[in-house]
User: Which sequence fits this backbone?
């Protein structure tokens, strides 16, 4: 098995999750990297992606697990081979072989770079009693506990936010921060997935 | 000016399927700005446009010649309207340049109801719609494709038309452009190239409201444009790589064109006449093209396209060769299989969803009138063969309003359906049979033996549809019919003249776009456009006199008008001409081309 991280940038951030999967399947076909096929009635390649990313959100940290017997050779390594056959913006960053199936869809949190929020005192902000926001689905609630880490690094805000059942979307948070502190969100880039058991890349 | 996707992020996120507008597909040619920059524009949404093989061939011809061919597809309303609101011009997919920057924009005319989309794209590109309002700072607006055989409804908007095969003439014209001092010189010289029509150089003389002559403005000689013709498709341009779509396209598979033209001569079929002569490609060429496309794209299916796939002379050898050379998981699709060329072997290679047959008419008599040389026995043989293979869904296509049609012909449709049901249930089957019957209203198209016919009226068509609905009230049978207004609009635009330019402009101003999409078509806006322009729909759906000059008569598609008239007479006698495969029918093509029969 191979687990690899890949990007969704340069326009590819607008490709849906399902279409991203299709792109990966075809990239592997073009690269002649065989993937195991399921034995169910509706056969499909054994490819597993990390949780869907909101359309429009960039990422350099998406993950994919392949059940494959492919091995690097003297002339070829997986990353270069994948990248030679993938579309613009969907490029392998890193990869590793693994013996067991990793739950790439089960990250505990994600770290994002957010550009365009006006500077504010983070510690003061995190010491609030609550942070009420209404998300894109119209659900209102306190999300302060879903912010695991928050700090400025030069002109960008680095936010580590809960994933899974307690997901806090960075665009929802960004909208709230703009409302409170001003600015205009120019870009959000997912840079890391945290807490995927066994993931070492 | 180049567009940065980050700058229009708000528009992209707020639009359905934003991946339509990003480019960057694997297989898209890496372009740079060169001495001649062409943008291939398709007036429909991304998932339709990117499936079209013709525009890929044209783009390849430019890129191979060292010129630039970028792409632009019609944005859906949500994205397009927001671009306009924000003042962002429509841009090309690969270079992200605004369309105004290009030397030439080429629009593919695949169907008449896409014409307002052309105006929409020009408007979004901030290019004046009417050619009289455009100076030399704007790109040349060109059109090609099947509907270009009657270019007249679009002459108010289009500078130059390409008639016939597009593999060579477009590039020839582009190279000519680079040698000319000004546009006037360019248009004069371009009009001398075979397949090129420059409307501004043609005068039309009228007498009592009807066309009397087509004259060259400069020489005052009779004006004709002969279609461009590629004799040998085996050596013609074909793309070695194609962009693999960012989203699911309507035809998400590798497509090879196995043959251009059709032997059959069905009298209603425009494509069968305008794509003559028949030019099959050889098996080696096709296998090479299919293997290259599968390797380059990663697709799992190859579609063998032509007007009548079953008539390709080397079909068995081709299927065998493809199976031997393609990866084992690649399936073959054989669309456009005629009932009488249906073979169990071909069906086995197809995807097993449903099989589609197009008898077109319910009785042998009417099928003979339209020269659809297919018997009831052949229909039944084909459906029986499909049932033996395990198919349990059959789609049947028919037309309503054909010349000489009577109620007996409609009753014939019911009889066909009943016979199919009877055949299916002769044996014990595990699944229930589903038959879908789809009827469309006959449109008398240019360059067919029926081009003079009138289109049946709304009242006539509704009566027939109601009658058929009663006849086909049978368990397991689904009946669908198309909307009359759509058919009449298509007829008008297909058979129309220059007066329709005003109608198109008014329709666009009234908000008409994506008229080919049922949920977008605004009938009242179109009716208002006709009224404001003082043009009657009936003037174009009427019967045309055999002696009158038709708006498209200055175009020479190499098939003689006398042949079409002869075919019309035979139609009314109920006589079949049959296929060219059974002997040359002397349509006129033979004067220039030796057909492969």
Assistant:
């Amino acid at each position: 098995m191979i687990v690899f991280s890949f990007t969704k940038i340069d326009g590819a951030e607008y490709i849906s999750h399902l279409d991203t999967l299709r792109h990966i399947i075809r990239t592997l076909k073009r690269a002649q990297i065989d993937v195991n096929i399921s034995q169910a009635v509706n056969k499909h390649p054994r490819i597993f992606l990390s949780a869907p990313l909101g359309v429009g959100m960039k990422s350099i940290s998406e993950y994919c697990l392949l059940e494959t017997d492919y091995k690097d050779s003297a002339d070829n390594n997986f990353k270069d081979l994948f990248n030679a056959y993938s579309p613009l913006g969907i490029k392998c960053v890193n990869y590793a072989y693994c013996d067991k199936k990793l739950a790439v869809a089960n990250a505990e949190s994600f770290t994002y770079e957010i550009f365009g929020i006006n500077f504010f005192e983070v510690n003061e902000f995190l010491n609030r009693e609550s942070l009420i926001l209404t998300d894109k689905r119209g659900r209102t609630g306190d999300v302060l506990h879903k912010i695991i880490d928050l700090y400025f690094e030069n002109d960008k805000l680095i936010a580590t936010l809960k994933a899974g059942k307690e997901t806090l979307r960075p665009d929802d948070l960004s909208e709230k921060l703009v409302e409170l502190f001003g600015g205009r969100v120019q870009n959000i880039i997912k840079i890391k997935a945290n807490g995927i058991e066994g993931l070492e890349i | 000016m180049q567009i940065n996707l980050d700058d229009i992020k708000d528009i992209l996120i707020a639009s359905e399927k934003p991946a339509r507008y990003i480019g960057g597909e694997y297989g898209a040619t890496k372009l740079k700005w060169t001495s001649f920059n062409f943008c291939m524009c398709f007036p429909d949404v991304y998932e339709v446009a990117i499936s079209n093989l013709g525009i890929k061939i044209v783009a390849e011809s430019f890129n191979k010649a060292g010129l630039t061919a970028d792409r632009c597809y019609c944005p859906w309303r949500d994205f397009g309207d927001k671009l306009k609101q924000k003042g962002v011009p429509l841009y090309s997919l690969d270079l992200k340049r605004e369309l105004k920057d290009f030397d030439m924009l080429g629009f593919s005319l695949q169907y008449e109801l896409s014409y307002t989309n052309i105006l929409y794209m020009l408007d979004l590109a901030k290019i004046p719609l009417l050619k009289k309002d455009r100076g030399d700072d704007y790109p040349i607006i060109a059109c090609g494709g099947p509907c270009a055989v009657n270019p007249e409804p679009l002459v108010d908007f289009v500078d130059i038309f390409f008639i016939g095969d597009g593999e060579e003439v477009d590039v020839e014209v582009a190279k000519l452009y680079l040698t000319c001092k000004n546009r006037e010189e360019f248009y004069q010289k371009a009009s001398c190239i075979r397949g090129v029509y420059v409307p501004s150089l043609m005068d039309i003389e009228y007498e009592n409201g009807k066309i009397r002559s087509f004259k060259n403005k400069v020489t005052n000689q009779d004006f004709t444009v002969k279609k461009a013709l590629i004799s040998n498709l085996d050596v013609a341009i074909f793309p070695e790589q194609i962009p693999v779509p960012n989203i699911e396209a309507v035809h998400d598979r590798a497509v090879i064109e196995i043959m251009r033209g059709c032997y059959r001569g069905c009298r209603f079929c425009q494509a069968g006449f305008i794509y003559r002569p028949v030019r099959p490609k050889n098996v080696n060429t096709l296998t090479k093209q299919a293997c290259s496309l599968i390797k380059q794209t990663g697709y799992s299916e190859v579609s063998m396209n032509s007007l009548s796939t079953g008539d390709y002379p080397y079909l068995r050898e081709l299927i065998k060769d493809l199976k031997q050379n393609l990866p084992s998981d690649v399936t073959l699709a054989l669309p456009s299989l005629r009932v009488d060329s249906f073979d169990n072997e071909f069906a086995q290679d197809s995807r097993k969803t449903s099989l589609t047959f197009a008898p077109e008419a319910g009785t042998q008599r009417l099928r003979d009138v339209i020269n659809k040389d297919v018997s009831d026995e052949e229909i039944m043989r084909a459906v029986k063969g499909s049932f033996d293979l395990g198919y349990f869904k059959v789609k049947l296509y028919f037309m309503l309003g054909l010349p000489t049609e009577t109620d007996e012909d409609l009753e014939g449709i019911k009889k066909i359906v009943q016979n199919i049901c009877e055949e299916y249930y002769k044996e014990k089957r595990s699944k229930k049979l589903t038959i879908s019957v789809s009827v469309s209203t006959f449109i008398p198209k240019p360059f067919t033996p029926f081009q003079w016919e009138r289109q049946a009226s709304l009242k006539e068509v509704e009566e027939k549809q109601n009658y058929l609905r009663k006849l086909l009230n049978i368990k397991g049978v689904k009946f669908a019919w198309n909307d009359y207004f759509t058919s009449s609009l298509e007829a008008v635009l297909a058979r129309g003249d220059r007066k329709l330019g005003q109608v198109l402009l008014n329709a666009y101003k009234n908000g008409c776009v994506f008229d080919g999409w049922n949920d977008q078509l605004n009938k009242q806006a179109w009716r208002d456009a006709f009224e404001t322009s003082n043009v009657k729909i009936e003037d174009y759906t009427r019967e045309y006199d055999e002696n009158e000059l038709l708006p498209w008569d200055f175009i020479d598609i190499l098939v003689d008008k006398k042949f079409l008239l002869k075919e019309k007479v035979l139609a009314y006698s109920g006589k079949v001409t049959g296929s060219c495969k059974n002997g040359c029918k002397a349509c006129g093509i033979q004067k220039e081309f030796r057909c492969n029969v």
Notes: Strands of chain A lie at 2-8, 47-49, 58-66, 92-97, 109-117, 132-134, 140-142, 147-153, 156-162, 183-194.
